[in-house]
């Protein structure tokens, strides 16, 4: 079938930024979960993946979309969470290499920090479009909570002193981005030329705790995906798949978490993985996902699938997965393929 603009896949969105800027909390807000408080030391140490259905995106942008009237056609969104701690540069690099678009989270109270800058340069080097969340806006002095509301509605009811602090901190962040060679502006103050300029970065004030601006960032990501990334997001039947994590799960044995960007993966497929000892061929014995709006790295009531379609995160059960290397591609041996060819191909990346 021809690839068309009417058949887009879910965009893969990665969340990056310095430690404790609120990346996981932002996802918790959208998921209505509490993953962050269950993390050891409140620190993310793995790559995560959460799939949001279209109906969730519609519900969580409904208020803002009363005025924006954006026709959302994406089938959903797949969001990859990454650690901000300095020791996980490899995971940030993997996350940034897998995504279509990114959210760079900045703590509005701290401005740009070391791993913010590192993340920013990773995204720039790959030419990945991103938006900046100016998070923790609720920590501006005397902030009046407007739970889950569009950010402009929330700013309208803030006292003048709160607004002064907000403007001054937002303008500091803008200057610090400028120092890194990044032009940016509060997204509703951007001119038409700024939107045309693919290097220009929209800023979205958010609170992951009280929810102001979360509608804005979701809708903005949908708009960028449909308006600017649609060519890249046209669904394609060729399998495009990468290993996110390899881990043992109680009762399941060794599993691999995969990011399937395009194509299908089916139970019974003969999959070729890269391991420390070279390529291996193994049958896919199980395809599991958490329910929608649930984090894949949290053990849950997994849903069993016969077939999954990208873009989606999926946990795979099979034999011999112990030495699979995270970050490597996965291929499937088709009916007309020679196993040796596929093995050579998978190792060539
Ligand atoms: P790492 O994954 O470890 O890099 O951290 P993170 O960026 O995922 O941040 P996390 O979600 O762990 O949040 C760090 C701390 O900031 C937690 O105590 C959160 O409750 C708090 N926090 C996050 N977002 C907000 C926010 O918008 N407002 C306020 N007031 N606190 C926040
Ligand atoms: Mg985190
Ligand atoms: Na944290």
From TrEMBL:
Domain Tr-type G: 8-229
Superkingdom in the source lineage: Eukaryota
Localization terms from the record: Cytoplasm; Plastid, Chloroplast
Family statement: Belongs to the TRAFAC class translation factor GTPase superfamily. Classic translation factor GTPase family. IF-2 subfamily.
Protein name, entry field: Eukaryotic translation initiation factor 5B
Shown stretch of the complete protein: 425 to 773 of 1030
